[in-house]
Amino acid sequence: YISDRYLPDKAIDLIDEAGSKARLQSSILPPELKEREEEIDHIGKDKDTAIASQEYEKAARLRDKEKELRRAIEEEKKRWREKRNQVQPVVSEEDIAHIVSKWTGIPATRLTEDESEKLLHMEDELHLRIISQDEAITAVSQAIRRSRTGLKDPRRPIGSFIFLGPTGVGKTELARALAEFMFGDDDALIRIDMSEFMEKFSVSRLIGAPPGYVGYEEGGQLTEQVRRKPYSVVLLDEIEKAHPDVFNLLLQILDDGLVTDNLGHKVNFKNTVIIMTSNVGARLISKGRSLGFVAEEDTKRSYTDMKTIIMEEVKRSFNPEFLNRLDAIIVFQPLTREDMKKILELMLGRVTERMIEQGIELIISSKAKEHLVEIGFDPKYGARPLQRILQRSLEDPIAETILAKKFPAISSKDRSAPAKKGEKSKNRIYVDFNPAEKRLIFSNTPFKEKVK
User: CATH classification of 9-86, choosing from 3.40.109.10, 4.10.860.10, 3.20.20.70, 3.20.20.80?
Assistant: First the structure.
C-alpha cells in the first residue's frame, strides 16, 4: 500500500510508529483513576469554598477525605505501574492497518477486510448506484478481478478503460461508484478535463512546468494528485479533445505504470484505475434507440449494429498502440423510460434523506413520480434533464415551503412516530400531481389514494 518508499525502510518505520503508539496507549491512566483524580479536584474546590465561608469544621472533613483519596489513588497507581511493566504492549494487525491508513488515506476497514468476497459481488454493489449498463459494469468488474488475483502485469495500473456513449447515461457516475467501492470514498476520484489540454504547450501542465517557467515548484496537475493519493480512480474527461502529445504520455503510464514529473519524482500509477470518457460516436448511439416503443429484440439488435459502427469510428479517431493498451473499450447504452423510473427512485431517495436531516418526511405519490419521468425523460441527454426537472419542480417548492415555515422541523423522536390515518401531520410533506393544472401540488395532509 505504500508505493513511494522501499523495504526494509518503510517496514521499520511502520513497526516503529505502531510500537510507539502502543507504548503511549499503555501509558495512559485508566478511566477509573482519572475519575478519582477529578473527584479530588472537586473536593479541593469545595474545601477552598468552605474556608472562604469560615466553615472550618466542614473544611477539615473535606481535607481528611482528600488525603484518604490521594493515598488510595497512589496505591492504585503503584499497582497499575507494576502491572504495566509486567505486561508488554502488543502490536496487532489492526494497529498496523491503522498506521497504514493514516499514511495512505485508505480506510482501515478496507485494509483488514476480506476483499475476495467483496470482489465476487462487485456487480451487485455497483448496480446499487448505476442503473442498467450491465455490459459496462461486467467489463469493469472482470478487469478489476483479474488485476486483484494477480493474473495481470503488476507494473500496469489496476485497470484502464475508455467509456463511450451519450451524455447523462452514467459514465462519470460509474467512475465515482468505482472509487467508492475500491477505496472507500468518492473523494478518491481525480478528475481532469482534457479539453484544457488541446494545445501543445498545455501538455506540460500534466507533469509540471519545466525549470525556469511559472509553476515549476507546484508539480503537475496529474502527477501531483496521484503522488498524494496513490490509491485513486483517475478520470480523464473528453479524451478525444486532448493534444496528441498527451497520448504519448498515457502510453507510458498504461504500459509501465510510471511517469517522472518535472521535479524528478517517479510517480507510480500501478494502484490507480484509469478511466477515459469520449463522445466519439455519441450521436450515432442516440439515434440507435428510439423512445422506448420498440420491441426488446429489435433494440438489442439495433444497439449491436450501432456498437460495431462506433468501434470503427473509435479506431479511426485513436491510434492502435493506444487502444491496444486499454483493458476494455465500453459503449454505454442510452437510457430507456424504465431506466429513468429507477434513476428517479435513486434521486428521490437522496432528496428524502436530506429532508429527514431537516426533520421533515417526504411522501410522493405514484402519479407525481410518473409526471416527473414524463417531463424529464429525454433519451438524447440521459438523466441530467430529470435532475434539473427534480430541482425545479420538487426541490425549489419544498425549499420555499420550509422557509415559509409551513412545515416546521421536529425532533427525531416525533419524526419516527408514524402518523395515524387521516391525522394532520406537520412533519410530513405530501406531493401529488394535479392533472388539471399539470403540476405537482404540496400538502401536509395525506392523499386519498394509497401512496406507493
Answer: 4.10.860.10
pLDDT in tens, 142-159: 888 887 777 777 788 988
Write the DSSP symbol of residue 247.
Answer: H
User: How many Å apart are CA 242 and CA 317, to the nearest integer?
Assistant: 12
Q: Look at residues 445, 451, 405 and name the one whose alpha carbon lies nearest to residue 425.
A: 445
The per-residue pLDDT for 448 is: 64
Q: Domain 337-443: which CATH class?
A: mainly alpha
| Segments of the chain assigned to CATH 4.10.860.10 | 9-86
Task: Find, among 314, 323, 433, the residue nearest to 373 by Cα.
Answer: 433
CA angle 226, 229, 234 (to 5 degrees): 50
User: What is residue 188's DSSP assignment?
Assistant: G
CA distance 306 to 300: 10
Report the top-level CATH class of 114-331. Answer: alpha beta
Asked if pLDDT for residue 258 goes beyond 60, the answer is yes
pLDDT for position 112: 56
In the numeric block, which cell numbers belong to residue 420? 395515524
Q: Residue 114 to residues 111, 120, 132: CA-CA distances in angstroms?
A: 8, 11, 28
Cα angle value 286/288/292 (rounded, 5°): 85
Upper half-sphere CA count for residue 163 (Cβ side, 13 Å): 28
User: Residue 12 burial (CB < 10 Å; 0-12/13-18/19+)?
Assistant: exposed
Mind listing the pLDDT tens digit for each residue in 286-322? 554 444 434 444 455 566 777 787 888 888 888 899 9
Please report, as a single letter, which amino acid is at residue 13.
D
CA distance 112 to 118: 12
Q: Where in the chain is the domain with CATH 3.40.50.300?
A: 114-331
Burial of 209 (0-12, 13-18, 19+ CB in 10 A): middle
User: What is the residue whose three cell numbers read 406507493?
Assistant: 452
Closest CA relative to residue 226, chosen from 289, 183, 181: 183
